[in-house]
């Protein structure tokens, strides 16, 4: 009996232990978070981010690791937490004291008035979190700043006072003390001319306060002056000592006082010395004297090649002197570079011979020589620079064939008829074949990885080894492995000699890749911190991350791109947490730093068509933490001339201001959907070619991003328009246009601001009908549609050379085409044609302007019809067509700078579309990337000038300045 009781007792103990073990592996749960925030104006905003901690955790260790992340990235002077966990339902109590915020920053000078406001240079400024270490660094900064300006006895005391709870004022009390005085200046220079210039430019500092920064700036200015007078290599060094009275003794030393000059003669008569003098000066300034002749020759050859000419350059360095140099009447020697530019004597190549090649035929080598040749070599002439590059290319080609030790030597022989015979001696050596290929570290996932191996490594055992191709293959292979979920995968021996091991000389090679796959991980939860104002739901909705999705480089890139596109954060960090939650799940942690969400802008300016203008913008962004924004915009301008108006209106004395005032509200992800909503209200007055117009506009628009980089939008618009001051009274009137505006775009460009490849397609429609609140204008009905398609394509020929194209086509049509009769049944006529019941208001009729402009034409030139009338002078009751074509080859000088040439064509046409009747232009373009898009400077020339109704010939061309049009 006792044995039986003992048995059951042991079973009970085991059962209790099993329960304990099971509970120890149960999920750790946070069911609620309570935040106690002390003494800070940001308490209200800082508490909402901790709500993201609610949920299940793999263990308490997992939770503690995450909470430590929150503590590390937060701006808190105190962070405490208490966990009340009963029945696995945990209440997390967090007590935080945010760092104080800087209120006012005051700099108080006790004995002198300082004009410079140093507050903008401090690391602690208004609205920032207060950190004591930064206060000390700011004191050190100010001390160094004033010491450099001559106050080496400066004393600075900092004081921190409380403004309100959680807000501190900073006061810097500065006693500058007695400044150091420059007692004497000593010059160590052999040239009297240089000495005189230095005394004029730096001597004024004697017996004055020593401001080190201003003095060094003066030395730099002196160097520039001396270089402009021929001392291109001059360098000025300085040193100083302080005496017992703390006064300064300055010493200025001249280094390399050579006076350099240019004698330039061009036998081709293409350039004169004055054309190149600025380039010569830059070369003299930036190049060491020993390398000047080589640099000058290289520059000139490149300069003449731009004009399609090859040259011979002779440069002789001659020292002349002494030379009389008034007005100083001093004797100095001068180094003159005598440059002679002569026509390049082209030597024809008689024969090209290849010797020693077996694997590659003479025919193939000869074709390879000419395919890669320069313009000079292709024309059959001797080009030594190309021959050097050809040998390198040929060796690389042999390596691709598997000949690792191939060698190529070259000689050129003169023939009796003064030509060249070229000999390329090839030693192919031994061809390397692949003896074995192995990838280690994939054994546990062989079935998954093996198909990837087959897709990327094409060369079988025994095939020739191409190391260039192999390097590309191992990179693309690793990328696909990482994209299959092995985010941390990497090569262990990528830079190791074991990756390729040669045998029998180089006849065979063993290839070995050792891969550390790491875990194959899935996404589990997203944790976000640092979003004091921005709601977490805004970020989560935009990211739209699916649990169990594989974490890959593209997955992480999408997170980074999405957060960037929100425009709410000045910086952020995204990382994968190390804790493995089982089944290879990992959390992603995002630490954010928010921007300031309000701004005010003023922008005075001038435009040749609008005259003097002033614009302003007030932006309130991220309202309610929901990424909503409210924007107030205003612009007012006064034309300094009446360019763009017809001759009749130009003659009137009716100058008036033009303006536009607009308020816009953007509501992204409305009602927690993926639709963005915006509404706007505007009031404007504009002067058009043949009339003036006041426009009141109200619009609503819904848009949504679709898969495959598509964007759909649907809008409603209501406009009340008053046209007046028209050349012809038929264009005057008041009418209301109600319309809907659906649109669809597809954007596959690699860069929206400055694309170099990809394409963009957009189609927009406007349907105005009485059913959408359009109102009749007199006897005429407003019932029309407007369709515009735009496509842009970018073709990279080389990484630097891109061909950009743009095609815009538009169609407008009046839908009320029944004949118009008056109350007595009499047919009505307009411009001698039977009138229709509907029309398209002049203000809505197509014009080639802005993004659709034909460069080289003014607005009042390109919008003229074949009969000489501007399109706004025509009463539109049928159709209007708009066409704009652009072709622009571009060369990328830098990542942010491109030059190009272009050909544009376009026209607006009434009633019928005639492709052969387009106006066209050609020109040059310069594009520079700015934070708001590319700044485009274009000059276009008309291919065919025409006369207007006033028998006046059009201008030959026109300069255009625009932001981000094409």
Biggest sheet strand line-up? 24-25-26-27-28-29-30-31-32-33-34-37-38-39-40-41
The best one-word shape is globular
Low-confidence stretches: 14-26, 324-330
**Helical coverage, percent range:** 10-25%
How is the main sheet built?
A: 16 strands, antiparallel
Distance between the termini: 96 Å
Strand coverage percent: 35-45%
Radius of gyration: 39 Å
How many H/I helical runs?
17
Mean residue pLDDT: 86
Which secondary-structure class do the elements indicate? Answer: alpha+beta
Total strands: the figure is: 41
Structure description:
This protein is an alpha+beta fold. The chain has 17 helices and 41 strands. Strand 22 (569-576) and strand 23 form a beta hairpin. Helix 5 (192-202) runs antiparallel to helix 6 (212-228) and helix 12 (446-456) packs antiparallel against helix 13 (467-483).
Please outline the helices and strands.
Layout: H1 2-24, E1 28-37, H2 43-46, E2 55-57, H3 60-73, E3 76-86, E4 89-98, E5 101-109, H4 132-148, E6 155-164, E7 167-175, E8 182-188, H5 192-202, H6 212-228, E9 235-242, E10 248-255, E11 260-266, H7 273-286, H8 292-305, E12 311-325, E13 330-343, E14 349-355, H9 362-371, H10 375-378, H11 384-401, E15 407-414, E16 420-427, E17 433-440, H12 446-456, H13 467-483, E18 490-491, E19 500-503, E20 508-516, E21 522-529, H14 536-543, H15 553-566, E22 569-576, E23 585-594, E24 598-607, E25 611-623, E26 628-638, H16 647-650, E27 658-667, E28 675-687, E29 692-706, E30 710-724, E31 733-747, E32 758-768, E33 784-796, E34 801-814, E35 829-830, E36 833-834, H17 859-862, E37 879-894, E38 897-910, E39 919-930, E40 933-942, E41 957-963
Parallel strand pairs: 1-4, 5-7, 8-10, 11-13, 14-16, 17-20, 21-23
Antiparallel strand pairs: 1-2, 3-4, 6-7, 9-10, 12-13, 15-16, 18-20, 19-20, 22-23, 24-25, 25-26, 26-27, 27-28, 28-29, 29-30, 30-31, 31-32, 32-33, 33-34, 34-37, 35-36, 37-38, 38-39, 39-40, 40-41
Helix pairs in contact: 5-6, 12-13
